[in-house]
Amino acid sequence: MKNPIYPCLWFEGNAKEAADFYCNVFKDTKITDENPIVVMFESAGQKFMCLNGNPQFNMNPSISFFVVCETEEELMKAWNILIDGGSILMALDKYEWSEKYGWVQDKFGVNWQLSFGKLADVGQKFTPTLMFTENVHGKSEEAINFYTSVFKNSDVVGILRYAEDDHDVTGTIKHAQFKLNNNVFMTMDSGLAKGFGFNETISFVVECEDQGEIDYFWEKLTEGGEESMCGWLKDKYGVWWQIIPEILKELMSNPDKSQKVVEAFLKMKKFDINTLVNV
């Protein structure tokens, strides 16, 4: 199993504008592919998908991206661009975990946690951070154990729990790091955050080599969750995933087949590779 995992950001028809914006925010960032449905960009070797969707969902802080900035100049440049038209959730300041850190929701609604530090401390520049709130509050550790059981090359890096004087539920997760197929993720529980939770605006794409892998992830991740259309599913914690065949990009780039491929997968819940290849 190779199974690259990367985030998909749902925009309201302005995916290209958003991708261009992030190319300006973060160094070593470029658009790698685009079509009317999605725009792909890479930053620091990590892949992001920007989807042109409908205005039916609202982004929120339940999933944010922890960003390691190795110089203060890099951090300040990104911060100043991101706060323009955005909103500050945590002021840029010194905290116990960072000499300089701030949390901002940008003008498109995407949440970023910028932190001055060393890339080696995390292992990657951008780390998806899942906040477990409301009906899934307190289930962060259970989710970590579930995800690391599903994906290969996975392990728990570390868990820090709330103490009695932390103004949240003692014993629940204050901060945790874990790896799924060597991709770093972070989680936290929040009993204070209200009125938002996971939704379709940020999902995680899992590329599969063959039908067996698609069947495997579909079965595991829909357990207690919910099937949707076009390879989308919601797991039992409310986190959204897209289980797609890696050959899909090749099929979509074939002008003689792309439209038929789209027509075929629009009728599918779980992807059927054989059907797509033979349309």
From TrEMBL:
Note the Gene3D superfamilies from the entry: 2,3-Dihydroxybiphenyl 1,2-Dioxygenase, domain 1, 3.30.720.100, 3.30.720.110
* GO MF annotation, one: methyltransferase activity
Q: In its keyword annotation, does this UniProt entry include Transferase?
A: yes
Instruction: Specify the PhnB-like domain's residue ranges.
Output: 5-114, 124-244
Could you list this entry's UniProt keywords, alphabetically sorted.
Answer: Methyltransferase, Transferase, Ubiquinone
Instruction: Give the taxonomic lineage as stored in the record.
Output: Bacteria, Pseudomonadati, Bacteroidota, Flavobacteriia, Flavobacteriales
Q: What is this protein called?
A: 3-demethylubiquinone-9 3-methyltransferase
GO biological process terms, semicolon-separated: methylation
The yes or no answer to whether the keyword Transferase is present is yes
